Amino acid sequence: MRIYLLGFMGSGKSTLGQRIAAAFQVSFFDTDNVVEAHSGMTISEIFSTYGENYFRQLEADILRQTSFYSKSLISTGGGLPCFDNNMEWMKENGITVYLQWPDDILRQHLLQIRNTRPLLAQLTDKDAGEKIADLLSIRKPIYEQSSITLELTGDMEYDYNLLEKACKYVW
Ligand code: S3P
Fold first, then answer.
1. Distance from the CA of 121 to the center of ligand 1, in angstroms?
2. How far is the CA of 117 from the centre of ligand 1 (A)?
3. Are 5 and 75 a contacting pair, CB within 8 Å?
4. Helix-helix angle 125-143:103-113, to 10 degrees
5. Which residues contact 19 (CB under 8 A, 6 or more apart)?
6. What is the radius of gyration, based on Cα positions, of the chain?
7. Between the CA of residue 45 and those of 48, 96, 148, what are the distances in Å?
8. How far apart are the CA of 66 and the centre of ligand 1, in A?
9. Bridge partners for 3 per DSSP
10. With a threshold of 0.90, does the pTM exceed it?
11. Which residue, among 6, 11, 8, 7, has the nearest Cα to 132 in the 3D structure?
12. Which residue's alpha carbon is nearest to atom 8 within ligand 1?
């Protein structure tokens, strides 16, 4: 059974996912990394050269290729569930796990690492804060359709243990 990890940018999908996959000895895939490997460009380069729509097409294609993977953990880009029926597709093709953070903690964390995220990198702190709030209000109802929602805290060990329990339950 494939597990798809969902959640906003910076919610630990890749970091926690990699640790969990190693602990359970299952394959780990990160849709952003696969998009980069296939295109030979970084996500930022794809956004600046071809625009967001092109990126969304690539990530939807990459997602559908995960139907060939057996038991594995797949970390998805923060916007992926919100385009191209990707959410419905994941629900039909695996177990969806939403890594939910308290909004305030997530916002603080994102403002610190936002240079690594093309949707936020060029914005002032104020504009980035507004963009995060806007995106959260659009995306949360979609993430919340996941089979499992985990209320994370931003504390790495606590969050890891929660995700570990959920994966044990599924696998
Ligand atoms: C995006 C999130 C990023 C990456 C791209 C777009 C988004 O992934 O796919 O920058 O729209 O929220 P992470 O969630 O891993 O940061």
1. 12
2. 7
3. yes
4. 130
5. 160
6. 15
7. 5, 29, 33
8. 18
9. 73, 95
10. yes
11. 8
12. 77
Task: In whole angstroms, give the CA distance from residue 7 to residue 75.
Answer: 9
Tell me the two tokens of residue 131. Answer: 């963009």
Q: Which atom of ligand 1 is nearest to the CA of 119?
A: 10
Cα–Cα separations (whole angstroms), residue 150 to 9, 66, 79, 156, 161: 16, 23, 18, 13, 11
Structure tokens at 142: 């979609």
Instruction: Provide the percentage of residues in the chain whose pLDDT is more than 70.
Output: 100
Residue 55 neighbours by CB under 8 Å, 6+ apart: 35, 43, 46, 47
Read off the pLDDT band of 152 (50, 70, 90): very high
Residue type present at position 119: L
Q: Which numbered atom of ligand 1 lies nearest the CA of 135? A: 12
pLDDT score of 101: 96
- pLDDT surpassing 90 at residue 116: no
Q: pLDDT digit string (tens) for 33-48? A: 999 999 999 999 999 9
